[in-house]
Amino acid sequence: MSEPFHGTDLLDVDRLLAEDERLVRDSVARWVDERWMPIVKDHFRNGTFPLELATELGAMGLLGTTLVGYGCPGLSSVAYGLAMEELERGDSGLRSFASVQGSLAMYPIHAYADEALKNRYLPKMAKGELVGCFGLTEPDHGSDPGALSTRAVRDGREYVISGEKLWITNGSCADLAIVWAKVDGQGADDIRGFVVEKGTPGFSAYDVDGKLSLRASVTSGLVFDEVRVPEENMFKGVRGLRGPLSCLNQARYGIAWGAVGSAIAVYRAAVDYAKARPQFGRPIAGFQLVQAKLADMINEIVKGQLLVLQLGRLKDAGVSNPVQVSLAKRNNVKMALDCARSSRSILGANGISDEYPVFRHMVNLESVFTYEGTHDIHTLILGRAVTGISAFE
Ligand code: TGC
Ligand code: FAD
């Protein structure tokens, strides 16, 4: 019997990382193991997210990681990606919290708001003292956000927002919501972004009931009943679908890394289980069909790691584009979901128990497969890129 390979980095991708990138990854990994793993099962069972950890995430520089100034850490995209991989090894809900805060709430404020709003919100959001959410999806408009129906009507020096958002991560625990609404007309070009603070009259949030996935994450509906916000709360720096899609571009990048973390978690569980579980007089790891599943998993994990690392290097060089981000999100989330299903099968009946992390990751990944552009939407984005023909029109 030959010496087994214990890690997940079969191709020594670690060698391609800088020392400071490894430091970020290893410190986040330690935090996940010490602070998150002991509590995740209960939070998943109870359908809760430990909001008190937000300031710890902030202290580690995981909220608005790549943003510069306003108390944000200004780390590289690769360091950020490695951190998201470790968070999602813990749970997709944990990575979701950081993605929404940094990429979907802080990023648009940083990119598009005026100085007063940046100074008011960003330093506290970077510390985890203020939590944000991102309201794009509506009950009747998911994959096609250009058709959204939330309206913002100008009234003197205020805007009056009316409409509803659904499936909003952190919605009911957020101190502020980034809300995308149409001003003036009905076209996608009329979409503008607004900051709406919790407690503003007419603004309410409720939790989505009956969720079987991402249970350790808050998912909400937002209701805007003639909510008045000052005109300063509208992002002047962007209009049209480009506003929300540019935020999604940041978040999808983090998800592509995060999915590798989920895949690693389920792969490790499968290897450990297969080596420890005897059937027919020997560990099931000794059977060829089980080995084939493990080989497929490690094969795809290594490819997924290389994919996001190259994408991160392009992003840090300022030459990445949204199609590459779609490719990475699409590939790595599907890869992780396939690994989770395969791992679950190796664990047999134990695969459906929360004594092991596999089923939790598997059902989480069903959400990750759907949000931030469904797998099929990213297929069509790639299809448009390679044919020059849009399937959306
Ligand atoms: P299209 O013509 O493609 O684009 C309109 C304008 O947007 C620009 N653009 C982008 N900019 C930055 N990043 C991107 N990824 C961009 N994609 C497009 C584009 O250049 C154009 O700009 P301009 O200035 O020329 O007007 O628009 P389309 O209507 O054809 O788009 C179609 C489609 C399907 C690709 C798009 O609508 C889409 O991506 N749909 C998916 C919706 C989605 O992803 N929703 C996610 C909601 S948020 C969420 O799920 C959070 S989960 C949070 C968690 O982690 O817990
Ligand atoms: P639909 O758009 O109705 O799609 C249903 C099916 O039809 C999918 O398979 C889709 O691929 C397919 N389909 C749609 N159009 C086409 C087409 N043109 N061609 C082929 N197939 C097509 N949104 C936010 O704004 N903020 C958040 O924080 C947020 N968090 C979320 C958290 C969770 C746990 C979940 C599950 C969702 C979250 N979302 C959030 C919403 C998410 O972005 C949407 O669910 C997603 O964009 C898909 O929209 P939909 O669910 O309405 O599906």
Descriptive report:
This protein is an alpha+beta fold and 393 residues long. It folds into three domains: 115 residues, Acyl-CoA dehydrogenase/oxidase, N-terminal domain (Butyryl-Coa Dehydrogenase, subunit A, domain 1); 102 residues, Butyryl-CoA Dehydrogenase, subunit A, domain 2; 146 residues, Up-down Bundle (Butyryl-CoA Dehydrogenase, subunit A, domain 3). The chain contains ten helices and eleven strands. The strands form four sheets. It has a four-stranded antiparallel β-sheet with strand order 4-5-9-8, with helices on one face. A hairpin with an 8-residue loop joins strand 6 and strand 7. Helix 6 runs parallel beside helix 8 and helix 7 packs antiparallel against helix 8. The longest helix has 35 residues. The mean pLDDT is 97. 3-thiaglutaryl-CoA binds next to helix 4, helix 6 and helix 10. Flavin-adenine dinucleotide binds next to strand 3, strand 5, helix 9 and helix 10.
Q: What's this, in brief?
A:
The protein has 393 residues and is an alpha+beta fold. The protein is 50% helix and 15% strand.
